[in-house]
Amino acid sequence: MASAVFREPKPLKNDGGEARSEQPAKKRKLDTSKYGTLKQRWQSFANELTEFETHVARGDAKVSFAFVQGKIVKALKDGEWVLLDEINLASPETLESISSLLQHGRDGRPSVLLSEAGEVDAVQGHHDFRLFAAMNPATDAGKRDLTPGLRSRFTELYVQSPDGDLDDLLSLVKTYLGPLLHRDSTAAPALANLYLDVKRLNAEHKLTDGAGQKPHFSIRTLVRALLYVIDQAHVYGVRRAIYEGFSMSFLTLLGKEAERLVAPYIEKHLFGKHGNSRSILFPDA
User: Fold this and answer.
1) Inter-CA distances, 252 with 233, 245, 265, Å
2) Are the CB atoms for 189 and 270 separated by under 8 Å?
3) What gap in Å lies between CA 29 and CA 32, rounded to an integer?
4) By CB distance 3.0 to 4.6 Å, which of 5, 50, 122, 185 could disulfide with 113?
5) CA dist list (Å): 76 to 33, 73, 95, 276, 280
6) Using one digit for the tens of pLDDT, what is the confidence trace for 117-139?
7) Could you tell me if 230 and 176 are in contact, meaning their C-beta atoms sit under 8 angstroms apart?
């Protein structure tokens, strides 16, 4: 099979009996070093595939597959640091498989037994190996709290969400928008204060979505608005891009009544000091 896939194209015959190639009449030049390297990699893959087919045809299952150590095992041996992000999204079986990394032996080193590889001796970890994990509260779909036994093996630190502090929000907005704020230095505090007011209204249960449920706003919602501003500010200007990005990320989640409740805050923070908002939203009108 491999030889059939990677063989050189054979000439074909047309209706008149003349030979023609399988290759199209027009093609790009592939003589650069980039395509030369790519061709070598494909050829290497073809050789490995041919060797694999040979082993399967002989029924030699022992050499058809080999156990390959994962990145965590390599980090354990080399003394590297590993971060498991969103650890509470992992399945119970996955969490059980890493629990031994949190149990240190008499010499103070973690270890792991690779039973899948048929080994009977545990792999001893390096003294410098560290395992970190991060998780959000189990409020979203698919997330669950860690078991008390596993959670107690970590040194736990709670990090407050930065979207409740004005200074943190300003730092976030300025980091994303950067040079765009040189033309409008008040845009960052305007957007930050608008976000805080919308969060406050939501915390007071005054906002609902189209299904009558409480919407969920977070830093990710704000970042989506900021990314829109980055893409569109050169077309519409910073203020209008902020207005459209905020409307797209926040107002589309709200019902009509909640949208009317938020509208005065948008007018206050984004256009309050500019007098006529229409001159910003529709400069050519």
Assistant:
1) 20, 11, 16
2) no
3) 8
4) 122
5) 37, 5, 16, 62, 57
6) 666 677 888 888 999 999 887 76
7) yes
